[in-house]
Amino acid sequence: MSLRSGAGINGLQYVCSYAVFGELDWSPGIHEQCIGRLWRDGQKEQVTAAFITIDDGADPMMKRVIGDKATQSSKIMSPEAEILAAVSDEQHIYSMAKEWLRSKGADVDAIIATHEQEERGELFIDPPAQGTEAHTVWTLLKNKIFSTTIERELQHEIAVAFTTAGLAHEREVILSEQSRVDFRVGNVLIECKAGKFSKTEMLKQIRRYRYEDKSVAALVLVTPAPLRHFTLEGLPVYTVNITNNSLMVGGLS
Fold first, then answer.
1. Does residue 102 sit in the same domain as residue 139?
2. pLDDT, tens only, 87-136
3. Is residue 139 a contact partner of residue 167, using CB atoms and an 8 Å limit?
4. Whether 234 and 137 share a structural domain
5. Contacts of 49 by beta carbon, 8 Å cutoff, 6+ apart
6. What range does the domain containing 28 cover?
7. Considering the entire predicted model, what is its pTM?
């Protein structure tokens, strides 16, 4: 029977004294409850419990967690409370995933480092490939000399550049009730970030764009801030640094 299906059953103590566990639960209290079906009034034999585990998958991590919990508590706690705590504990899931990846020979430290780089907007990439829509947009804006770092004026100059080049585009595109992007050319979004701005908030905004429109192939970020091309949530972000000797440099807060 499953670990929790035996709750409340009486009478097993009259017919058996051995318990064999083929699965583990995050809560040691669940195991105690199962063993308690045998070790109770009416049992005339010594009760023996055996746990069948393997050195792969989730078992090693679960055994450590169960051991820690059993050490910290000297009495049986509410099984349901333990289950809810375990299920809601993201750190257990995170640790279990790392254990499983290591068991498969993965370089977990490298995977984590890459993920953290991406979260910071520091997983750098090359410029867009020639022949792509992103390359067309990025090249046009990269080669233009902008005369302002005021965001509204910058948007106007970008619109003029698109129109002059005969590049079909949309302006002030609404992606959702919460999101509006400055320009769209096909499946490429264009966002202006001038003056002082928060990089953290900018990354949140880009993530939101990614989730709200899965068809977006790339984002071109026009800014005076010294940012490099990077990828975030699988979305390539190509930067156009508009800084030149005639402009006041904006930056990140």
1. no
2. 445 666 777 777 778 888 889 888 888 888 888 888 999 999 999 999 99
3. no
4. yes
5. 18, 19, 20, 21, 31, 35
6. 12-106
7. 0.60
